């Protein structure tokens, strides 16, 4: 009996390698660890204690802690804040202006790449599939890939169709990529204590 062998290759192209500069400031690294624990435990009271009262959550005038609580339906344990923040806190941070941006995808995004037409794979050996939930046809390692249209499911789509730098077309799990205009957070010291001062998406 002949068994077919699937050839899985790593595609070379432009990449956005992960960066984490948290260790440059042990106090921030400790703060991030505490925040991540609160996120995973859905500890709204503990988390909100680390949010700046003037937090920026929009690019308009509706900002501040009350708007933040309303936007994310806190203290609900089903709030979209929890998976959003867990992802940001585990994808590395970069230092800027005495504070830290998370994730690295935002601050390190190449200026020459359109963030609305491309995404950056954020996991090593991410499978490029022949169809959503299909079989792998290649492996992506932090590659920047081009989005090929918009799925009929819209934001609820579990996978996105992409094209690699070499021209190979396939599907990538939404959990495996980000773009510069996705959610990002800024942390800085306010009154000598680390606080979440910005959590926005878009441009």
Summarize the structure in words:
Strand 8 and strand 9 (169-173) form a beta hairpin. With 203 residues, the protein is an alpha+beta fold. Residues 1-12 have low confidence and may be disordered. It folds into two domains: 22-109 and 181-200, Nuclear Transport Factor 2, Chain: A, CATH 3.10.450; 118-178, SH3 type barrels (Roll), CATH 2.30.30.40. The protein contains five helices and twelve strands.
In short:
Helix content is 20%, strand content 28%. With 203 residues, the protein is of the alpha+beta class.
Supply the key terms:
203 residues; alpha+beta; Nuclear Transport Factor 2, Chain: A; SH3 type barrels; 2 domains; 5-stranded mixed sheet; 5-stranded antiparallel sheet; 5 helices; disordered N terminus
Spatial order of the strands forming the largest sheet: 1-12-11-3-2
The N- and C-terminal alpha carbons lie at a distance of 56 Å
**Strand residue content:** 25-35%
Structural class: alpha+beta
DSSP E strands, number: 12
Uncertain spans, ≥5 residues at pLDDT below 50? 1-12
The level 1 CATH classification of the largest domain is Alpha Beta
Radius of gyration: 19 Å
* CATH structural fold name of the largest domain: Nuclear Transport Factor 2, Chain: A
Name the overall outline. globular
Q: Give the overall average pLDDT.
A: 91
Reported for the largest beta sheet, the result is: 5 strands, mixed
Q: Which range best describes the helical content: under 10%, 10-25%, 25-40%, 40-55%, 55-70% or over 70%?
A: 10-25%
Q: How many individual domains?
A: 2
Write the layout of secondary structure elements.
Layout: H1 26-40, H2 44-48, E1 51-56, H3 65-71, H4 81-89, E2 94-96, E3 99-102, H5 104-107, E4 118-121, E5 126-129, E6 136-140, E7 144-147, E8 159-163, E9 169-173, E10 177-178, E11 184-190, E12 193-200
Parallel strand pairs: 1-12
Antiparallel strand pairs: 2-3, 3-11, 4-7, 4-10, 5-6, 7-8, 8-9, 11-12
Helix pairs in contact: 1-4
